[in-house]
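## Example record

The block below lists the input lines for one assembly entry, exactly as stored, with component labels intact.
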Amino acid sequence: MDYSIGEIVALCSFNIILVLLLSPLLEGIIRKLVALVHSRIGPPLYQPYIDILKLLGKEEIVSSDNFFFRYSGVLALAAILSTAVIIPIGARPPLGNAGEIIVFVYLITLSAIMVMMSGITSESPFGIVGAAREMMMVLVVEPVIIIALITAAVKARSMTFGDIMAYHLSHGTSISMVIVAIALFLAIVAQLARLPFDIVEADQEIMEGPFIEQSGAKLALFKWSFYAKELIFASIFVSIFVPWPYKGNFIVDFIITLVKIVILLLIVGVVHVVNPRLRIDQAIRYFGILIFVSLIGLAFALVGS
Amino acid sequence: MHSTGYCQAVEKAADIEVPARARFIRTIILELERVQSHLLWLGIAGHIIGFDTVLMQAWRIREPVMWLCEKITGNRKLLGMNIVGGVRRDIPKEMHPELMEVLDKVEKETKKVLDAVVTDTTLLMRCENVGILKNEDAIAYSLLGPTSRGSGVALDIRVDHPYAAYKEVGCEVVVETGADIWSRLLVRLKETVESIRIIKDSLAMMPKGEIVADMSDPIPPGKVGLSSVEAPRGETHHFVITGEDCRPYRWKARAPTFQNLQGIPLMVAGETIADVPIALGSIDPCFSCTERLETVDVKSGKIKIYSKAELYKLSRSKTFKR
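Predicted structure tokens for the full assembly:
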């Protein structure tokens, strides 16, 4: 089932616009859940949209003239949005014939590097500590994501999200997939900077770390890239590891995927709300174990179970 | 806290006997302040390590205590209950059932939080063996209150030098020997439960009678009074010399935070940045009691002390000009 040029352009634009417009709403849902557990009323669901709009209109105060300090927010959001065209959201991804898994990992790392650059170039000690923490987190979290995706790819004998999704849809789950799914879920919690892995920002310790000097539209783009990340990672998780039920009808599948994404993010929210923040050394030890566990999952996949 | 300390110092200087009922009411007020202060601290400590659920739930439990304070004194904070020679308002008998009901609820919920907190393994990971303050250091640096009681120093003015009605109602000193942040957390939580017990007993044992002593004689000048009160953060001392026309000639208060801050360098030596905020938070610091900023040039060893005006100027200047 290949798409024509017109369909590709339409689906690409659809995915990008969807990620941009829908992701703040998902953030709003998580905030509402967190508020409920806190015994608070909580902000309205559309609060993240207002946050972004407000920040976009604010004056910018800069602490540095560095190129990366000014444009890291744009590049981070751009990197995340680029992944929107190669991942499945309800349907087969619009682009992709070869190794998009590798492209995806590079783009995600690019957004993390932009966070680091923002911290390093902000000329604030808190920013530099935040950048160092981000670097350590990336080094331990990304292997888990990579191994999980490779396990799925090994099973499907393809590096394309579309093929992987189709394979797991028709073949059902297996031991290896369950193992790496659990590891990937925890890696996603860390990637989304949710507690207990909210170590990079840690506003009570290093005051938002890499973003301490960011303001106005630059900060808005960073925030938007985080909201977009939530949707992207949740979408990958549900379409590769829990692709059922799949009806074949685009609109029905799209709605089912959205429901699954919301449920996954609600679980992330629950993990977020019942945990304090870990220290960086504790988190690294934790993910060290997770890398090992996901390697076991990969080994299972290589022997065919 | 401080008003009790000051009134007691003046009463000691002028040799005024406070009526028993007033002493019991003072005890109740002091303990209500301790309960709300410890619950507030628990929330802040949770917030510092990113556990906002603890913050929200602890402050939700604290709210009925504030309501109690308002019911008894008319204010949520700064209760304005003490005057030299006694207290300003009585706690009438009709109010007791309502107070007891709220206290029962607070006690039940505090115990629930205590259970939830002590079984939380992630919280334990962040607090255990962090911010170590050895027993001998706590004694050598004269640290006070829950900070030293977490290191196994059984110091408590309420027991060592009983004031108000603590002799009658009794008070159990909570001591933990872990010497880390976890112990200080446990001390504060257990003290909260003990405080609620003291309030309930005081309400039940409160004798009938006047609430203000006979103050018809003027306070003689040139007398010296010193009183100590166990504040939630540690012991507080008030020193008063009486002057002419029933006015103080000199008055000096010492709050516990300045003393406790001296232990911070010991607690954070060799720890990571992530542990510094919670180690600092574990003494329940009150920076308004110690306001003073000092910078030390590491190379030359030169010390500069900032004045209030300089701090204002610094806080208003921009860090970077284009």
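The mean pLDDT of chain A is 84. Residues 5-302 of chain A form one domain.
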